Request: fold
Amino acid sequence: MVKEIYKERIKVLTELWSRILEDQNLTREDVIKLLKESYEEKGIKPIRGFKAEDLYEKELISLYVVGKDGLGLFEEYKDLFNRLFSFEITYDEALNLILENKPFEAYEKLDKDKGNVAKTLRLIFTETIFSFKPEELLFKALRNLNNTNLDELKHTAISFSRFYTAFKLAEGIAERSIKDRISLEAMKKAIAINIGISYPLPKPKYISLIATEVFNINQRVLKRIFS
Reply:
């Protein structure tokens, strides 16, 4: 079941798919523009960590996930997906290789680009927060990357684990399941255990950034939790 906190976001993405299907001449750039306009109209902010570049292009992963996993459109509109979401399809294919414990093949498919590896992880991350896939798949992908002897893949797994932890803590604050420092620290440790790799846990500044920029959490609430 989709969490309440994401229902409006998924509704906006679903409505945007209606517009895409009505006008199949839209370009990728058109879709990015429509996505930005739709989010701004509803006061929804794109998913992000520290980096603020190309936020709406990255958010196309959310649109892709809703179309493929949520609405089941991929088989019927394969040509449309190939035209608008060719990058996301590549991330999806690379993800399958990572989950099959073929990280080096995935890295080749992603042009040996760390940024593309992070976007591949963002895809399975989005599938999990939207409740389309179990979290364990994300954890498995992170472990499989971390278990390689390639620094680029290990570093990406470590960096994404820290982002994921910060994001889930910000989500918990937004849902009010985290109300104080004690519950925050307990959840932080639980997430780290579930992921199962060694990585630096996120500092309050990182959690606060996501809580503010993604979930619109008031600074007073954050100060109370972190005090």
